[in-house]
Amino acid sequence: MEVIVKKDYEQMSRLAAQMIADVVRENPRCVLGLATGSTPLGTYKELIRMHKKEGLDFSQAASFNLDEYVGVKPTHKQSYWYFMYHNLFRHINIPLENVHVPDGTAADVEAHCAWYDDEIERWGGIDIQILGIGGNGHIAFNEPGTAVFSRTNWVALDKRTIEDNARFFKRKSDVPRFAITMGIGTILEARRVVLLANKASKAEAIAATVEGPITAIVPASALQLHPNCTIITDRAAAGKLKRKYGSTPRKLPKVRKKK
Ligand code: GLP
Question: Most buried among 2, 84, 106, 238, using CB within 10 Å?
């Protein structure tokens, strides 16, 4: 697990966007794993800028989103489909037929979840998965207690998640109680994982994820099992880490050839 602590949200977002752009440039037919929430918004803004100003080309790329509320239509303003369309997809040239967000209105939710995992495989697996983190350490909607090797499934949301998300809905009672989420096992299969966290409200979850034991109580701690996982935070979210971490991706020094 590599931890990179940036000065602020802008720098954190720029680095994450750079990492995604590198994957897109190296393999235009790449498969991106995308997240919702306020955290990746800066990253998406930077990707949009790169697309518009630098010609970053998504025309052959595909994407899979982590999660969606059960019972919420894509046209609902709080649906994750709506969020992704308005904050990213409509501003770049990714073909909409290549984008995937779990369908919260699927008639057979369990069959849809199994299909989603199969579909990720059919597209060749996820090249880079972006993640946020919940205040309780959840990733996607994998709440505390989720098995490390879980697959895409439907879940009941934690009390804290419902409270955290209440700000997006008119009333707390409007917050959906269930969601479809990629499993932790599904997430661990991505070739590369990048978790983003900013603000002091995430500091405890980040410390437990990075420096605590791997435990079902902190779902993000399962990322310690991933061979290519980068955690990027701002200084506030790094506030409870015990060790000091660098501010740039690690790089091997060049070996000087002896004459
Ligand atoms: C939701 C999403 C998660 C996200 C989390 C944090 O619960 N399902 O994928 O990481 O919120 O959201 P925010 O980035 O707004 O703090």
Answer: 238
Q: Using one digit for the tens of pLDDT, what is the confidence trace for 50-89? A: 999 999 999 999 999 999 999 999 999 999 999 999 999 9
Q: Give pLDDT tens digits for 161-219.
A: 898 888 888 888 889 999 999 999 999 999 999 999 999 999 999 999 999 999 999 99
SS3 content of the chain, % helix, strand, coil (to 5): 35, 15, 45
Beta partners for residue 185, in sequence order: none
Q: Does 39 contact ligand 1 (Cβ within 6 A)?
A: yes
241 in Cβ contact with 12 (< 8 Å): no
Q: Provide mean pLDDT across the span 79-102.
A: 97
- In a domain, residue 143? The reply is yes
Give me the number of domains the chain comprises. 1
Active-site residue (options: 68, 143, 189, 234): 143
Q: Which residue, judged by its Cα, is nearest atom 1 of ligand 1?
A: 37
Res. 259: pLDDT tops 80: no
158 and 144 in contact (C-beta within 8 Å)?
A: yes
CATH code of the domain covering residue 75: 3.40.50.1360
User: Do 53 and 22 touch, CB atoms closer than 8 A?
Assistant: no
